[in-house]
Amino acid sequence: MSRILFITSNRLGDAVLSTGLLGHLTERFPGARLTVACGPLPAPLFRAVPGLERLIPLPKRSFARHWLRLWLDCVTTRWDLVVDLRNSAVGRLVPARRRAFHAKAARPMHKVEENAAVLGLSPPPAPRLWIDAAARAEADALIPAGTGRFLAIGPTANWQGKEWPADRFARLALRLTGAGGPLEGARVAVLAAGPERERALPVLEALGPRAIDLTGRTDPMAAAACLERAALYVGNDSGLMHIAAAAGVPTVGLFGPGYPEIYGPWGSGGRAVTGSVPRADLLALVAADAGARGLMDGIAEDAVAAAADDLLEARRAARPPGTAAGCDQFAATPGEAVEVPPLR
């Protein structure tokens, strides 16, 4: 039985965007035993991967000792295939029959395409999630019984410069779920990582009893189990946005100084909304003042609502299979296919 070492990101969003490539490996080599190494934050998302033999969370240590620890964990195994999206020395120094490394794209492309190019896959496999029974049980406990389909919003991010104003999130949620809105009468789940909870409180307070408070209460796997029940997700450029899209939820991602052509929500059910201020101007503001505020103010509430309406209407119309994948901001470009021989 073959063994595969898959080294992916310590960042939540990048790790989610690598799951399509990992899913391809589980299907191409169904009997293989997989070891996944990633950051501690995204690690729960990989615990139910088919064929998983070992999950190695990789917390950063001073003097790059985390890489030494990973090498010690892996050097005694003879790997049939190493897929290293970190392009690390570990991928080169452990014994392996075959190795594949991430390389920076020569042209701008979505991160899903960039990952697929590691094995020359075209079209690129879409991100996916392996949500287990424990996570779904946690979602049962967190979401009130009888809630039905709800609106999910992610009003925070790992950098405040990527956060749309909280009052606009609240108004948008009330607009979408209020009388005459496309999700009339629906409740609103508010998600945020633990350290970001305080910045989500104004949204929770504005929504009142309509809100379902999921801030700081879930790991990524449980968040995925909650999000897969949503009718729509609207949020800033963040790992939660990518989890929602990978869970198959219509997803609107908001981008100010970010790069939707690289990190937009993947799939035909994804929309990236940008503002009226050019990205170059926003980045110049950041360069002049790292704490610059108002970088997302140029995103109009009407534009976000229109993207949400469009996605919900598309879902109702049930687009036929075969609709081209990819965030609406870009078109996927096929890469050169490289055949990976069967593992023995």
From TrEMBL:
The keyword Chaperone belongs to this UniProt entry's keyword annotation: no
InterPro entries: Glyco_trans_9, LPS_LOS_Heptosyltrfase
Keyword Transferase set for record: yes
Signal peptide span: none
Keywords recorded for this protein, A-Z: Glycosyltransferase, Transferase
Domain of life of the organism encoding this protein: Bacteria
Pfam families the UniProt entry points to: Glyco_transf_9
PANTHER family associated with the record: ADP-HEPTOSE--LPS HEPTOSYLTRANSFERASE 2, TETRAACYLDISACCHARIDE 4'-KINASE-RELATED
Record-given protein name: Lipopolysaccharide export system permease protein
Protein's organism: Azospirillum picis
